[in-house]
Amino acid sequence: MADKARTGARGPRPPRVEAPRDEAADIGVEARLAAGVLLNAALEGRGGLDSALSFREVADLPGPDRAFARAVAMAALRRLGEIDQILDRRLQKAPPLAVRTILRVALAQTLVLDTPAFAAVSTAVKLAERDPKTRPYKNLVNAVLRGVDRDGPGLTTAESNLPEWLAARWRATYGEPALAALALAAREEPDTDLSVKPDVDPAAVAADVEGEALEGGTVRTGRRGDVASWPGFEDGSWWVQDAAAAVPARLLAPKAGEAVIDLCAAPGGKTLQLCASGASVVALDRSDTRLKRLRANLERTGLTAEVVVTPAEDWEDDRSFDAVLLDAPCTATGTFRRNPEVLRATKPAEVAKLADVQHRLLDAAAERVKPGGRLVYCVCSMEREEGETQIIAFLRRNPAFKTVPADPVAVGSPAEALTPEGWLRILPSMWAEKGGLDGFFVARLERVA
Ligand SMILES: C[S@@+](CC[C@H](N)C(=O)[O-])C[C@H]1O[C@@H](n2cnc3c(N)ncnc32)[C@H](O)[C@@H]1O
């Protein structure tokens, strides 16, 4: 974008998705319309983007155009602050949202996805023209977009892409340099990470998908598109899982023959890791819909677990376990690289609300740990209230538990994620030279025998 020098150590990437071809001009306009629908749905609230995928404007598009629409919406979400900085310099007064959406969608194409300006501008003008509400702004749309193409976007700041309240929180928690690095991490579309079954060679998977094996065994690839068509998917040799998301199950270190429970299991990336160790695994989750994906993942990989559908606090079963994993529901602010919409969807009040849920679930999890057994607690959140503060409070109310300090490198985590207490605070800005990883808080506790 404007400050190209700040695109990060790995440099600019080629466009991931081809824009619809010119001869399919109408489809091209429909694809841009769908991108705007997706963008606004994502800005409206949590889950908005996913539900909008089934809206007629999106679902009726041919597959490649739907993929293009989604890529444009994601690019606009990642760079929304910068796009608005560019627009606001050229707009004398705020236009209606429908007009701003057309402009945002066009700039996401030219500035992020490298769509040729003529295609982005002409489809934007056609879009403006066809709705009576935006028709009066057709010339403005044309002038603004041609102006940006002619003069360049001008200077923009990566931090503008972060909502102010979150940027203020992260500045206070992690400091100014970390905030700047987080803002840079938030601009880039991440690579795809795969966790590999223990009997499969990560180097062979890496060769198959033109990727590289990272510490801990995760394979990282710059490939895009439908993973189901990649080598090794059908035979269940691997599953998609961010490098940071693979850390908690490694830290729990389940062994063959142990009784293990995953208390918030769906859609199951961590369950698969636990099952692959040869442990006897219960996968519990309150959501039957999400567990359907977990069951499909088990079937594809040939792994087995006992699947239980119930809220963890209400499970009427008196078993206790050698190892308990609690990957608690959270704001998911650490996943902003893959899900840029979380930054917009998360509201300040949710942090405290989810912290209450995590408190309850931690107590339910503790009851399931055998004397001498392990409990790993994790959240993909950047917020201390959902991570460090939970564990500090838990250890105060449960003196039978103590922290077992993590060895970060042994579990595939950046070394600098280790906190003085022995927990892991993984930030998306870490491993910048490798392309980063999701933000996670992970703690390993043990019930004193
Ligand atoms: C962060 S996700 C888990 C992701 C999963 N561990 C994985 O690696 O794929 C949190 C999960 O907690 C589940 N959940 C929320 N409240 C719960 C409760 N009270 N008891 C059990 N599961 C719950 C949600 O349905 C959701 O699937």
Task: Provide an overview of this structure.
Belongs to the class I-like SAM-binding methyltransferase superfamily. RsmB/NOP family. One of its GO terms (molecular function) is RNA methyltransferase activity. Keywords: Methyltransferase, RNA-binding, S-adenosyl-L-methionine, Transferase. One of its GO terms (biological process) is regulation of DNA-templated transcription. It is an enzyme of class 2 (transferase). The protein is of the alpha/beta class. It has two domains: 4-159, N-utilizing Substance Protein B Homolog, Chain A (Orthogonal Bundle), CATH 1.10.940.10; 242-447, Rossmann fold. 43% of the residues lie in helices and 13% in strands. The chain contains 17 helices and twelve strands. The strands form two sheets. Strands 5, 6, 7, 8, 9, 10, 11 and 12 form an eight-stranded mixed β-sheet that branches. It has a four-stranded antiparallel β-sheet with strand order 2-3-1-4, covered by helices on one side. Helix 7 packs antiparallel against helix 8. The N and C termini lie far apart (56 Å). Bound molecules: S-adenosylmethionine. S-adenosylmethionine (SAM) binds next to helix 13.
